[in-house]
Amino acid sequence: MTVLHLADEGEAADLAAFLSRLLHYDRAAAVRLQAAGTALAVFGRPPSFEVLAVRAVRLAKPYEKGLDVTLDVTVSAGSCWRASRRRRPWPPCPPR
Fold first, then answer.
1. Is 42 helix (H, G, I), strand (E, B) or coil?
2. CA distance to 20, 24, 36, 84, 94, per residue, from 51 (Å)
3. Using one digit for the tens of pLDDT, what is the confidence trace for 34-66?
4. DSSP state of 6
């Protein structure tokens, strides 16, 4: 199971706000999560804009799962939004 440990409650609140804005434009939005070391990048694309939105999030400890030291997965923005509103560690988001 993949668990991401966000650095603090402020990071979780900022991430929840970012995801909420994406979901405002598209309730079925997906985001791409890429993690390496203590950094997590969350990529999303609001459907009515020709932009790629990116939010950087600090992790409390480096991402690792077995021998994998990087994460690259596309998941439901809604699932991540619900998870980001909970306390640390950040629960895994099911792949979309």
1. strand
2. 17, 16, 24, 23, 25
3. 999 999 999 999 888 889 999 999 999 888 876
4. B
